[in-house]
């Protein structure tokens, strides 16, 4: 009997694994890869246990592993490891309610007979701690659909079991193998109800294959239970959001923009050195001009101020961080989808403590000049407030500027015009 049941369970698992490879198609959505602490669940179970009649002979004595019925409770800890596959740990104690039985039996073998006295003993006690692998049959023969509520599954596993034979007062610490079929129904995203039919095979630890110390009895269980799933951790949710934002194509584009920015920064530094040399030359010329004619000194000073102002204005072209916070029409609060950009800039500033930036707000042409100028000011100051209050950036490292609708790209109502951009300050 044990060999037949083992073959059936093994065949069902092999068919489920084979079906899983054929069921997934190119249209099947990719299963997200979560960390260790995501998708754990905890639950309670109630089991009704039937123990068939099993005969054993010790020397000139005979006894039974008490046939009968009992019921009990259990605890369940479960982890989703892949779509349609779970690993779980189950503690079950089936001795909270027993039915009485008459243990008067006459056993005979090869011309010999033994008789067990009628002691009106109750059903044998049994407790087990097992680990089991669960595989969805729905997922094995159909495409994975996260929205499906009902799920038919098979499971198999093993662990440690403690049994107590009441008719002899014999207790046993042994091993247990189990397997069965179940149906799970998802009430909501976190709550599940399930029902299972299970067969348990219990043996002694020293030598499970040696009679009479081998596989000494079998339990048949019907179990109902409830599981609460704790869901995905905040860290995994943030990681999934980042992966959704940074697709392969977007990541490659950002890499290209980053490389281009590095080249621009390098060119800007070369230009800065050249400009500093030019400034030194201008300063020398200025000294010479002062020596030659005091009348021209004021004009030379005004010219130098103009060059410095132009250098500051050029910072907006050469030192921009390659993405902007975007806004809906007439909005100045940062949305949840755009908050990751504010966080990214804050992370850059934490990694570069000498970096200072200018936060610049822009608007489209929807409203008046005066209204848009105030709206772009609100956008810039709100981003600075978030970087200071939420991410701990020193407010002295951030300056604000606003351009209203004085700068536009393409269509005057284009979304890119409703933005806050970040520029590095060169001192």
Concise summary:
The protein is α+β, with helices and mostly antiparallel strands and 427 residues long.
Which key terms come to mind for this protein?
about 425 residues, alpha+beta, Porin, 60s Ribosomal Protein L30, Chain: A, 3 domains, eight-stranded antiparallel barrel, 7 helices
Write the layout of secondary structure elements.
Layout lengths: L1 H22 L16 E12 L3 E4 L2 E4 L3 E15 L2 E14 L6 E5 L2 E5 L8 E12 H5 L8 E16 L4 E17 L4 E14 L10 E15 L4 H12 L2 H45 L4 H22 L6 E2 L9 H16 L5 E5 L7 H21 L8 E5 L16 E6 L3
Parallel strand pairs: 14-15
Antiparallel strand pairs: 1-4, 1-12, 2-3, 4-5, 5-8, 6-7, 8-9, 9-10, 10-11, 11-12, 13-16, 14-16
Helix pairs in contact: 4-5
């Amino acid at each position: 009997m044990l060999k037949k049941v083992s073959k059936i369970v093994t065949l069902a698992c092999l068919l489920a694994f084979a079906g899983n490879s054929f069921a997934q198609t190119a249209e099947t959505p990719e299963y997200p890869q979560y960390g260790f602490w995501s998708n754990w669940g905890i639950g309670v179970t109630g089991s009704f246990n039937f123990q068939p009649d099993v005969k054993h002979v010790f020397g000139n004595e005979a006894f039974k592993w008490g046939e009968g019925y009992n019921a009990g409770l259990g605890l369940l800890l479960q982890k989703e490891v892949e779509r349609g596959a779970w690993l779980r740990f189950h503690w079950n104690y089936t001795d909270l309610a027993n039915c009485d039985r008459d243990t008067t039996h006459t056993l005979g073998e090869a011309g010999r007979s033994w008789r067990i006295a009628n002691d009106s003993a109750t059903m044998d006690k049994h407790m087990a701690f097992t680990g089991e692998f669960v595989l969805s049959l729905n997922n094995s023969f159909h495409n994975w659909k996260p929205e499906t509520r009902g799920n038919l599954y098979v499971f198999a596993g093993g662990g440690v079991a403690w049994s107590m034979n009441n008719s002899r007062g014999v207790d046993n610490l042994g091993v247990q193998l189990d397997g069965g079929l179940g149906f799970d129904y998802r009430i909501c995203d976190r709550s599940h109800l399930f029902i299972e039919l299970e067969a348990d095979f219990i043996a002694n630890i020293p030598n499970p294959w040696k009679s009479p110390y081998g596989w000494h009895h079998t339990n048949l269980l019907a179990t109902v239970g409830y599981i609460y799933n704790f869901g995905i951790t905040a860290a995994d949710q943030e990681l999934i959001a980042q992966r959704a934002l940074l697709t392969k194509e977007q990541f490659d584009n950002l890499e290209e923009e980053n490389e281009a920015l590095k080249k621009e920064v390098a060119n800007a530094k070369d230009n800065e050195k050249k400009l500093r040399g030019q400034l030194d030359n201008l300063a020398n010329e200025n000294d010479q001009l002062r020596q030659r004619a005091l009348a021209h000194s004021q004009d030379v000073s005004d010219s130098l101020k103009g060059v410095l102002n132009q250098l500051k204005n050029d910072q907006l072209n050469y030192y921009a961080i390659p993405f902007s916070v975007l806004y809906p029409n007439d909005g100045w609060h940062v949305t949840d989808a755009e908050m990751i950009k504010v966080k990214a800039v804050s992370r850059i500033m934490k990694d570069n403590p000498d970096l200072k930036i200018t936060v610049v707000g822009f608007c489209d042409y929807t409203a008046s000049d005066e209204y848009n100028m105030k709206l772009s000011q609100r956008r810039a100051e709100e981003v600075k407030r978030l970087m200071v209050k939420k991410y701990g950036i020193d407010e002295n490292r951030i300056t604000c500027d606003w351009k209203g609708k004085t700068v536009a790209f393409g269509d005057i109502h284009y979304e890119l015009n409703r933005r806050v951009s970040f520029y590095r300050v060169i001192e």
